[in-house]
Structure formats: structure tokens, C-alpha cells
């Protein structure tokens, strides 16, 4: 299968075909796992507020941006222009980098609270780390296939 065919062609989908083409299908999973990270970090106890602030910023920013992109793709706001393909690739590369940094910092915070905190808070942080790394993986895969689509457009 050619790279352009594997990435759903060189144009962005419109309407509900967003939910049937790859890599745009990953929007759904990015939305779900990003929301889980947001909820878990918001409810967890982290010893360093700066780390929690960064992880919250990344999860909320990516959640809102992903939701915005899904809505814009569904209503067809891109009109088939190649500048939107560039925007899609740039956003997913940035989101992948942001989520990677947030995941590493959240894992560091979870390691440091292993002793001296309530067991439930430790488990919430571990769950946030796991979902954060899953979201990172989703954004990286989406970024790679968005870059392939960008190169072929």
C-alpha cells in the first residue's frame, strides 16, 4: 500500500468521513484519552504544582484543539486547501511533543509521591501516566501519518 493511500490520501476528509479515514480516525481516541488525562490529573495530588500545571495545560490545550479540529473537519471548513494539511501536521507534531514532555513529568511526579501519600493518590497518578503515554503514542502516530499526507500534498 502506498504511503498516500495508507494515510487516507493527500487531502483532509470532510463530514463524517473523518471517523472512517486513517489517521483522522485517531481523533476519537486522542479525544478520549486526552479527556481521561485531564480528569485524572485534575483529581490527583501532585507534590509540585508546576508539574501539575504543565500537564493540565497540555491536556486541556490538546483536548480543546482536537475538538476544534474535529468540528472544523466535519463541517468542511478546510475546503480542500493544502494549508490545512500543513496545519494538521504542525498541530499533531506539536501535540506529540507537548504530550511527551507532560508524560515524562507526570511519571516523575508519580515516582516521587510513591512514599508518603495516600495509596489512592498514587494509583490516580499512575493511571494518569499510563493514559498520558497512550495519548502521546496516538499523537505521534497521527503526526507521522499527517506528515506523510503533508509530503504527498
UniProtKB/TrEMBL annotation:
TM spans (from-to): 25-46, 53-77, 89-113, 125-148
Entries under Pfam families matching the protein: MARVEL
Membrane topology classification: Multi-pass membrane protein
A GO CC term attached to the entry: endoplasmic reticulum
Limits of the MARVEL domain: 18-151
Subcellular location: Membrane
Predominant subcellular localization, coarse grouping: membrane
Biological process annotations from GO: myelination; protein insertion into plasma membrane
Protein keywords: Lipoprotein, Membrane, Transmembrane, Transmembrane helix
InterPro entries: MAL (IPR013295), Marvel (IPR008253), MARVEL-CKLF_proteins (IPR050578)
Transmembrane helix as UniProt keyword: yes
Gene Ontology molecular function, alphabetical: structural constituent of myelin sheath
Family affiliation: Belongs to the MAL family.
Protein name, UniProt field: Myelin and lymphocyte protein
Phylogenetic lineage: Eukaryota, Metazoa, Chordata, Craniata, Vertebrata
Amino acid at each position: 500500500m502506498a504511503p498516500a493511500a495508507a494515510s487516507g490520501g493527500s487531502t483532509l476528509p470532510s463530514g463524517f468521513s473523518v471517523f472512517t479515514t486513517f489517521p483522522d480516525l485517531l481523533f476519537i481516541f486522542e479525544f478520549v484519552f486526552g479527556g481521561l488525562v485531564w480528569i485524572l490529573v485534575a483529581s490527583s495530588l501532585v507534590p509540585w504544582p508546576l508539574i501539575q500545571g504543565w500537564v493540565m495545560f497540555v491536556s486541556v490545550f490538546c483536548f480543546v484543539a482536537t475538538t476544534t479540529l474535529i468540528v472544523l473537519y466535519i463541517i468542511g471548513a478546510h475546503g480542500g486547501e493544502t494549508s490545512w494539511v500543513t496545519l494538521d501536521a504542525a498541530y499533531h507534531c506539536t501535540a506529540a511533543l507537548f504530550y511527551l514532555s507532560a508524560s515524562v513529568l507526570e511519571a516523575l511526579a508519580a515516582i516521587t509521591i510513591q512514599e508518603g501519600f495516600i495509596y489512592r493518590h498514587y494509583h490516580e497518578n499512575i493511571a494518569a501516566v499510563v493514559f498520558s503515554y497512550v495519548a502521546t503514542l496516538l499523537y505521534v502516530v497521527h503526526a507521522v501519518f499527517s506528515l506523510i499526507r503533508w509530503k504527498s500534498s
